[in-house]
């Protein structure tokens, strides 16, 4: 049996901000249908790696291939991105936000947007603006926005920050279900324990490099 | 896939909805230009003939300064919660966003002009010596000249530290030919003279700068 083709290939990726190198030659391949938890201390380059994968940050040198394409715009329809900030308009309701972003992907079905909101455990009928949501609700709505285009690759930056344990567990369950449908998920997080049992691989970053990849979180935590 | 015109339309409607709810841009523009009208009317006491000579300059300088207030707000909503990143990772074309923002600003500044022009007429006892309908054409072309460059340069100064200062520094010098044409055309029409040359100049300016802005906007949007 042949190994599944990698969804993402990163070759000698370097990203510099002035004289500071946030990524120092990252080289890795990630196969499809898995959850990858990207871990590391603050400043390790996790978010920069994720933003580079999402086409929001251009590499100083090196190459990123997603689904075989070198240009992000060729595959953007298949990628969902959730950042640490909500990427939502505070003055609009969740449903208004999703209806707008859906149109950017050519989705006009309002009922579909409502389904996505229900999938993350929120009420699509909620009329109050997102700015008045609790942090946990905002995170879930932000996840709904990332899931909107039914992406094959999900890039999530700190999806569980400021989310209560119950909601975070629910989000992990939802993400595991998404993975089981064959989607690939990258999760940058400081709450690795939430992903124990759900993540297929834990990737440890240090000083802008991937230094370890393992399935065993306990061993990784003991070593670090 | 939604066509670019469809994305422009939904983005414009979204911006109008957000402005309707917050009234950030329109309120600040209105108060600012109201102050200009009142302060100028106390500073000068021109005769009807003098008014016709200076009104073009006064009106357009007031609208230019007021427009800067609105233009600074244009992208503020998009960088709050980094919503612009959600647009950048989507397949929606950059130019559709630019056109939506420009049209939105055109509407806001036109509303301001419609509300402020009667006040100018009253405070400065303005009466055109010839037909005044060409002023509508000058207003439309002049407003477009201000907002198309303003929207572009506001996006350009988005990531700079003092963007409120940067916008007028970039916008005013490049607007001088348009401002000159607007003032001369307005003065000529108020004095019952022909303004054909200035109107053609303004239309050419609009055409050139709209094309250049559309060509360069994607680079500006994706700049880091």
3D architecture notes:
- The complex is a heterodimer of chains A (224) and B (224).
- Chain A has 224 residues and is α/β, with parallel strands linked by helices.
- Chain A has helices at 46-53, 94-104, 110-119, 135-147, 165-180, 217-223; strands at 6-17, 20-31, 35-40, 61-66, 79-82, 153-157, 184-188, 201-206, 209-214.
- Chain A has a six-stranded mixed beta sheet, with helices on both faces. In chain A, strands 2-1-4 form a three-stranded antiparallel beta sheet, covered by helices on one side.
- In chain A, helix 2 (94-104) crosses helix 3 (110-119).
- The longest helix of chain A has 16 residues, at 165-180.
- The model of chain A has no long low-confidence stretch (mean pLDDT 92).
- Chain B has 224 residues and is an all-alpha fold.
- Chain B has one domain.
- The mean pLDDT of chain B is 89.
- The chains are: A alpha/beta (224), B mainly alpha (224).
- Chains A and B meet through helix 2 of A and helix 1 and helix 5 of B.
Please outline the helices and strands.
The complex is a heterodimer of chains A (224) and B (224).
Chain A: E1 6-17, E2 20-31, E3 35-40, H1 46-53, E4 61-66, E5 79-82, H2 94-104, H3 110-119, H4 135-147, E6 153-157, H5 165-180, E7 184-188, E8 201-206, E9 209-214, H6 217-223
Parallel strand pairs in A: 3-7, 3-8, 5-6, 6-7
Antiparallel strand pairs in A: 1-2, 1-4, 8-9
Helix pairs in contact in A: 2-3
Chain B: H1 4-22, H2 24-43, H3 48-74, H4 76-79, H5 83-88, H6 94-123, H7 134-156, H8 163-190, H9 196-221
Keyword list:
heterodimer, A: about 220 residues, alpha/beta, 6-stranded mixed sheet, 6 helices, about 30% helix, B: about 220 residues, mainly alpha, about 80% helix, globular
Give the number of DSSP strands of chain A: 9
Count of the domains of chain B: 1
Strands of the widest sheet of chain A, in order across it, are 5-6-7-3-8-9
Q: Provide the structure class of chain B.
A: mainly alpha
The number of strands of chain B is 0
Query: Structural class from helices and strands of chain A?
Result: alpha/beta
Shape of chain A: globular
Taken as a percent bin, the fraction of beta residues of chain A is 25-35%
CATH domain class of chain A: Alpha Beta
Per the CATH scheme, the topology name of chain A is Rossmann fold
Architecture of chain A in CATH?
3-Layer(aba) Sandwich
Mean pLDDT of chain B: 89
Helix count from the secondary structure assignment of chain A: 6
């Amino acid at each position: 049996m042949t190994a599944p083709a990698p969804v993402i290939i990163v070759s000698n990726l370097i990203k510099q901000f002035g004289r500071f190198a946030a990524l120092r030659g990252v080289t890795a391949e990630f196969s499809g249908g898995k959850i990858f938890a990207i871990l590391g201390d603050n400043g390790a380059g996790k978010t920069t790696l994720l933003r580079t994968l999402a086409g929001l940050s251009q590499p100083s040198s090196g190459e990123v291939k997603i689904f075989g394409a070198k240009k992000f715009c060729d595959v953007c329809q298949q990628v969902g991105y959730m950042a640490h900030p909500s990427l939502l308009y505070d003055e609009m309701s969740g449903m208004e936000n999703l209806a707008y972003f859906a149109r950017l992907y050519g989705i006009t079905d309002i009922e579909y947007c409502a389904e996505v909101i229900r999938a993350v455990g929120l009420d699509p009928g909620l009329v109050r603006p997102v700015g008045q949501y609790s942090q946990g609700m905002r995170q879930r709505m932000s996840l709904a926005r990332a899931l909107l285009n039914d992406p094959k690759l999900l890039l999530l930056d700190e999806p569980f920050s400021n989310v209560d344990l119950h909601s975070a567990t629910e989000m992990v369950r939802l993400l595991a279900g998404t993975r089981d449908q064959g989607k690939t998920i990258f999760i940058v997080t400081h709450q690795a324990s939430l992903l124990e049992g759900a993540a297929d691989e834990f990737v440890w970053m240090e000083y802008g490099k991937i230094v370890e990849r393992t399935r065993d979180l306990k061993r990784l935590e003991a070593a670090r | 896939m939604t066509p670019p015109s469809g994305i422009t339309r939904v983005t414009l409607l979204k911006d109008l909805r957000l402005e309707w709810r917050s009234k950030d841009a329109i309120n600040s523009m209105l108060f600012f230009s109201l102050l200009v009208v009142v302060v100028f009317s106390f500073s000068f006491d021109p005769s009807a003939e003098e008014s016709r000579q200076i009104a073009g300059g006064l009106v357009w300088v007031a609208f230019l300064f007021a427009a800067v207030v609105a233009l600074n707000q244009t992208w503020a909503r998009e960088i709050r919660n980094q919503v612009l990143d959600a647009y950048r990772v989507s397949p929606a074309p950059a130019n559709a966003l630019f056109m939506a923002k420009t049209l939105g600003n055109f509407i806001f500044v036109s509303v301001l002009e419609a509300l402020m022009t009667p006040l100018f007429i009253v405070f400065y006892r303005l009466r055109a010596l010839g037909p005044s309908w060409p002023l509508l054409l000058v207003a439309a072309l002049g407003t477009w000249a201000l907002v198309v460059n303003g929207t572009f340069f506001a996006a350009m100064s988005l990531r700079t530290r003092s963007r409120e200062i940067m916008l007028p520094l970039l916008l005013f010098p490049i607007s001088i030919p348009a401002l000159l044409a607007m003032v001369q055309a307005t003065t000529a029409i108020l004095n019952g003279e022909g303004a054909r040359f200035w109107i053609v100049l303004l239309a050419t300016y609009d055409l050139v700068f709209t094309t250049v802005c559309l060509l360069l906007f994607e680079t500006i949007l994706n700049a880091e």
